[in-house]
């Protein structure tokens, strides 16, 4: 398990890239005006327009796990609820909610 990235809502992607670049982050990649990934070398911040946000308008922690099904089963046994897994082009993911109501994306990389 590792923190994969933190997804931050983005309105004006250019302005937000400039802000985080001024903090010393470098751009890993950009997908038009929809998404940009910036990093300090350890953690990635994903700047996402509304179409790319797991929960629109909320900053969301995204955690990479080795086995999504096993992780969700452990959380369910502890009383958590999770959405149905979604298969994307690079990962398989699901949205869970922590005990305080904060959304968390769990994902495993595509094989």
Summarize the structure.
By secondary structure, this protein is α+β, with helices and mostly antiparallel strands. Helix content is 18%, strand content 41%.
Walk me through this protein's architecture:
By secondary structure, the protein is an alpha+beta fold. It has two domains: 1-57, Roll (2,3-Dihydroxybiphenyl 1,2-Dioxygenase, domain 1), CATH 3.10.180.10; 65-111, Signal recognition particle alu RNA binding heterodimer, srp9/1 (2-Layer Sandwich). It contains two helices and eight strands; from the N terminus they run βαββββαβββ. The protein has helices at 13-22, 68-77; strands at 2-9, 26-31, 35-39, 44-48, 60-64, 86-87, 91-97, 103-109. It has an eight-stranded mixed sheet, covered by helices on one side. A hairpin with a 5-residue loop joins strand 7 and strand 8. It is elongated and about 45 Å long.
Largest sheet: 8 strands, mixed
Count of discrete structural domains: 2
Radius of gyration: 14 Å
**Approximate helicity band:** 10-25%
Distance between the termini: 16 Å
- Give the low-confidence spans: none
Structural class: alpha+beta
String of helices and strands: EHEEEEHEEE
CATH architectural arrangement of the largest domain: Roll
Strand content: 35-45%
Give the helix tally: 2
Q: Would you give the CATH topology of the largest domain?
A: 2,3-Dihydroxybiphenyl 1,2-Dioxygenase, domain 1
How many runs of DSSP E, i.e. beta strands? 8
pLDDT average, as an integer? Answer: 90
Q: Which overall shape is indicated by the principal axes computed on the Cα atoms?
A: elongated
CATH H-level superfamily title of the largest domain: 2,3-Dihydroxybiphenyl 1,2-Dioxygenase, domain 1
Order of adjacent strands in the largest pleated sheet: 2-3-4-1-5-8-7-6
* CATH class division of the largest domain: Alpha Beta
């Amino acid at each position: 398990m590792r923190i994969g990235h933190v997804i931050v809502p983005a309105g004006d992607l250019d302005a937000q890239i400039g802000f985080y670049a001024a903090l010393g982050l470098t751009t890993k990649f950009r997908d038009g005006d929809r998404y940009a990934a910036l990093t300090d070398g350890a953690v990635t911040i994903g700047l996402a327009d509304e179409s790319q946000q797991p929960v629109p308008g909320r900053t969301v922690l995204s955690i990479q796990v080795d086995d999504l099904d096993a992780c969700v089963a452990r959380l369910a046994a502890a009383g958590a609820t999770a959405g149905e897994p979604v298969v994307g082009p690079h990962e398989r993911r699901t949205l869970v909610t922590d005990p305080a109501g904060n959304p968390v994306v769990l994902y495993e990389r595509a094989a």
